[in-house]
Design the sequence.
């Protein structure tokens, strides 16, 4: 295990990108002594995690050597196991996708066949490129509720047979890799939180085959002790409304998906806006980010609809759309990458 200080240095190298960063700047930013930084960077270079990125002129003395992260030093697998589709991708150490595979799945086909499909796709992904890569592990994101600490899904709405199945353990055994399991929304939120310039607190509101939110407060995902935070889709917004698979009535998810099914996108956007407004009022967040397949099919309609609801309530949090189709799978890879950077 690398030290906390090495993780700090690696994270600054990551943030500096191609341009790189000098040892002196690393010392200034970490508060470590230049000697300590030199020791750490020498070790990171020996391990192949950092490399020289040229020289930069400095005032007075000799030009400073600039260091950068070596993205090809390690890779991670990100899996988005959705209700009807499986996406598996391979990223480098900087989180850039280098290979991707996608296929339809039916989460209702049972744990055996679905985990067979995940295993096949990940193995195929690792074979692609043909070279021997150092793979840190696999992050797997699926619909909640689930327990990320135990690596167990909960009672996924409509797919009760997944409840309590040891998904993390089984995939780790089949793949021979460390596996982290988390909710789709948490994975996406983590990936977004680690982007340079990300707001300190935001909600990632995902509308796809379900509706949920990943919450980031103070730069870190808020999962709750039972991974139960962010179950936005099952907030009651209509007392005695239509029944929901969760056992409740008038849940945001059931109302919003019904509006989408009727083709009433403006209505669906208003319902989503009501949910987003509840989050902004409850958590005082900086930003609302919308994503997921249904949003990406009509991004302006959803962003405008949600903005209108917030503005009507005098809420000023900006509303954005996460345009990347694979934000969840990319975030799943970050479940494995983040600890390298002390996140
Ligand atoms: Zn519900």
Sequence:
């Amino acid at each position: 295990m690398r030290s906390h200080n090495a993780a700090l240095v690696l994270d600054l190298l990551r943030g500096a990108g191609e341009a790189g960063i000098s040892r002196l700047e690393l010392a200034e930013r970490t508060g470590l002594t230049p000697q300590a930084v030199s020791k750490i960077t020498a070790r990171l270079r020996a391990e192949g995690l950092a490399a020289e990125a040229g020289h930069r002129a400095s005032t007075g003395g000799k030009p400073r050597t600039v260091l950068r992260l070596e993205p090809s030093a390690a890779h991670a697998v990100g899996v988005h196991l959705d209700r009807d589709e499986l996406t598996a991708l391979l990223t480098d150490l900087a989180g850039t996708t280098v290979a991707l595979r996608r296929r339809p799945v039916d989460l209702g086909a049972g744990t055996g066949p679905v985990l067979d499909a995940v295993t096949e796709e990940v193995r195929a992904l690792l074979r692609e490129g043909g070279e021997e890569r150092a793979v840190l592990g696999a992050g797997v994101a699926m619909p909640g509720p689930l327990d990320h600490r135990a690596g167990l899904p909960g009672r996924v709405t409509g797919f009760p047979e997944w409840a309590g199945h040891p998904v993390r353990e089984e995939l780790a055994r089949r793949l021979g890799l460390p596996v982290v399991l988390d909710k789709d929304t948490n994975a996406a939120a983590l990936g977004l939180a680690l982007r340079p310039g990300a707001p300190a607190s935001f909600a990632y509101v995902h509308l796809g085959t379900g509706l949920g939110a990943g919450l980031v407060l103070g730069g870190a995902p808020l999962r709750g002790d039972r991974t139960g935070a962010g179950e936005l889709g099952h907030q009651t917004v209509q007392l005695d409304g239509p029944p929901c698979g969760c056992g409740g009535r008038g849940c945001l998810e059931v109302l919003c998906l019904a509006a989408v099914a009727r083709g009433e996108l403006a209505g669906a956007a208003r319902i989503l806006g009501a949910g987003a407004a509840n989050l902004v009022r409850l958590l005082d967040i900086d930003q609302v980010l919308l994503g997921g397949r249904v949003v990406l099919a009509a991004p302006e309609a959803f962003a405008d609809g949600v903005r209108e609801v917030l503005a009507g309530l005098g809420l000023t949090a900006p509303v954005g759309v996460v345009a990347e189709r694979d934000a969840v799978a990319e975030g799943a890879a970050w479940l494995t990458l983040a600890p390298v950077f002390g996140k």
Observations:
- The two ends are 14 Å apart (CA to CA).
- The chain has eleven helices and 15 strands.
